[in-house]
Design a protein that fits this description.
Largest sheet: 6 strands, antiparallel
Number of strands: 34
Mean pLDDT: 75
Number of helices: 6
Helix content: under 10%
Number of domains: 2
Structural class: mainly beta
Strand content: 35-45%
Length: about 550
Amino acid sequence: MANGRLGKVVVAPNGTSAVYTNSSGAEASCTILGTSENGSIMTLKIDDSSAAVTLSTTLVSEAYNQRYLRYLAGNTTLTTGAPTYIGRLAHTATTVANSLFKLFYEFFDSSANATYGATVANAGDHAFRMAPNIINSYDVWKTLGTTRLVVPNNRGSNEEWRVNMFEETLFSDADTYYKLALNRDDQNSATPTTRSALNAYGACGVTVDPYETEMAMGFSIHDNGYMRAAVYRYEGTDNLTWYYGSETSGSIVYNRVTGSNSVTPSASVPVPTLIAQNRLYTFDRTSNGPQMIMWTTSDASGYNASSASSIPLKLIDVNETMSVTLNMQGARPGGTIVFFQYNPADKLHYIGLAQGNSTTTIHLVTMDRSVLQAKADASHVEISFTNIETSTSASTFGFKYVGTVPSFTASGSLAFSDANTTSSCMRIGTSLWAATISRMGSTIAAETIYSTDLKTWKTAAAFYSPNDYTETIDATTITSSSGAAVASKSNIGNLGATGVLENNLAFTQYERTGLVLSNGDRVLVFNGDSTNSMVMQVMGFEGT
């Protein structure tokens, strides 16, 4: 027999608890007290069963040790309205030797029992290295304000690269979006609204600017260092017009990037990497020298549909470019630019730069495109960071040195002091970037680090621990931990059907007196508020 406070519990948002169970063998007289400082919504019941107050199920369990980026949910494994596992978007590391960054972004659709994936870069004889701007996460795409999805597609021969455009009506949900974005073979996905091929010679490739909502950009490079640029302009259903600039020895690649007439790639000597971010473009010269090239159109009107035909020439013309000579500690086959990303929060471009081939130091520089655009109008501009830590000469062109980034690092086996260590960065959430660090020509498994501001980076374990992912949907919580996704949901709807005391009652202070509980009765409470916790107590005495 007990007297006084018989039970107490703090009920988390959307949580369910048994406050007190009468196991005395006799009746119990009690009062129920509740408080929620900022207000909650309570369902209160008396139940005489021993059924679990929450339902839990393993939605998926896989031998999959990469970190998850997003879970999506929606069927009936649990009670009505409960979510279930649909898919994953995750990094899949490979340990294949002599690859550049042969890493994948993957999406698994359980309803179709199919996995859709795409490489973020390509290796081989036709290895014009393109940045992994092949997709955005569904959450990111929704923030861009476009009604179309633009996807590079390397179907066809080595001389043919495609750009597919899909109307928004084809992917009203995340599941179909990822199928279109990640499954490059359009024979196994929805038919794109339009498609077009960019034909070029030799080592070629296509990348797109994920922030460009009016047009798609295509770029290719010849084995002899010539450059071709193309713009794809959507002009209605099944009508995609493309404009391109002819290859020329006056191109920026030939004159400002390669430094020679040969850029034939290999595992040890890759061709330059092209990265496109919000109308600013950069080449990482990798093995050919520590220099990066950035260029933009002469003014914003250059991106208007009415002047689309003039854009390709502006993008390759040596006289409408700006080059930056870093003068760091030698060339790096793995690349000097470890990340180049636009941050919509402050409207700046962030550039992470490897110090060289003998140190792990990573420097951070920001870039204001509007300043550069005003300075580099219709003329070639070349500036030099003689000493990047103290240089101020580049500030008039929109550059600002921020400092070193000690947190941008992997384990010792992937240190940036190795000249073959490389990085590939991608925006995977509205305020989340993932950088995958690997080493060319090595079987060392890649590592992925994460940042919410492009300044501070964390390992996967530090960023996600203890769970890769947690999301609360109504009364259900989905969590995961490296290969398993588990959902838990309140069972309050199936309990105490004849013992309802309160149903969805909004309160800050609550008291219920004069209750007599039979032996085996228990007091159950569900917190229907998604933000605020509440405290419940049962006061009274038990009989004998």
